[in-house]
Amino acid sequence: MSKGIFDGLKVADFTWAAAGPIVTKQLSDNGATVVKVESFKHPDSIRLGGPFIDDKPGINRSGFFADFHSSKLGIGVDMNHADAMTIIRPMIEWADIVAESFRPGIMKKWGLDYESLRKINPRIIMLSSSLYGADGPWSRHPGYGAQGAALAGIQHMTGWPDRLPAVPKGAYSDSVSPRYALAALMAALIHREKTGEGQHVELSQIEATTQLVSPQLLDLQITGANAQRSGNRKEGSILHGVYPCAGTEHWIALEVEDEKQWVSLKRILGDGSDLDRARAEGADILDAHVGELTVAFDAAELMQACAEAGVPAGVAYCGSDLLSDPILEARNHFWPLSHAEMGTLKYNGPAYRFDKTPSALRSAAPRLGEHTDQVLTDYLGFTSNDLTRFRESGLLL
Question: Which Gene3D superfamilies match (predicted)?
């Protein structure tokens, strides 16, 4: 098998929750040696969040944690121990990248701010990702992705005009900001290849998420129009929404952008004149009438008919649909990985394909401290006697 595109890259991963680990997962799944440094007295918070395998909570049983940590190694250390730098300093010397996603000030408290790191390893690249950014009046405030989405202007625009704002699924900014963080990190690596210089990459997850509302911000400045909640409506489309299909909780997303697509959809649904009348009466009437027609169709068959006619359509899949989807299966999207406590589960693979350096998910997410001995002896040069001494002092799990 060809080596991953990041083969040989060494990463000390202090990230936690989602925004940081999603970035380092892209490195580990593409060949980098990523060591998750986890304080066993305060483990990654999403280890404590479900869903848990078989609905049995446990520090090593979280599917939330598992999906962001494939192909990584994990060590358990007490980061507040007086001798923590005995282990961490050689790791900084070993690493190419240090990634962290704590509230600003935490890494400095441990003596691991960028100025301290570059004295140990001048070529080090540090990625710092936090909700509000490293400076500014709110930099030390606590918060998660739901607050990040609100502060980036997303939640004001999601939902229906006559209802309260609707929170998008999950910690929304945590899913957006890693895309920008990864691009910035790659730019820093390219810069180092050219100059030999490391540098500090600092990212605000709110500022990253604000990029998604750029069209609305431009419109506001030009026209004075402040974007409002519009439910499933899309300006400029004849039809845009999610409609019921045959069965229980089966749905299809449909969009009609022009008259040609409108004619095709009328032919498929078989109710042309009534659909034209509903369209003339307004979007609410049209949505209701389309839903009355789509409920007679199998969702997958309707999607296929729309696809053949050039009408944008997509079945609204649930999780079990995704795991059995023939298209994802044909593209080998899911990777079965064996975990000591959770068994063999399917993990999300990368959404991209390298033809010369294919990605490979090499292992399931690490149990807390699973690779401590391996990392300290194989990579950092400590002996088994050292490990015994560290454990007796409470430094290691």
Answer: Crotonobetainyl-coa:carnitine coa-transferase, domain 1, formyl-coa transferase, domain 3
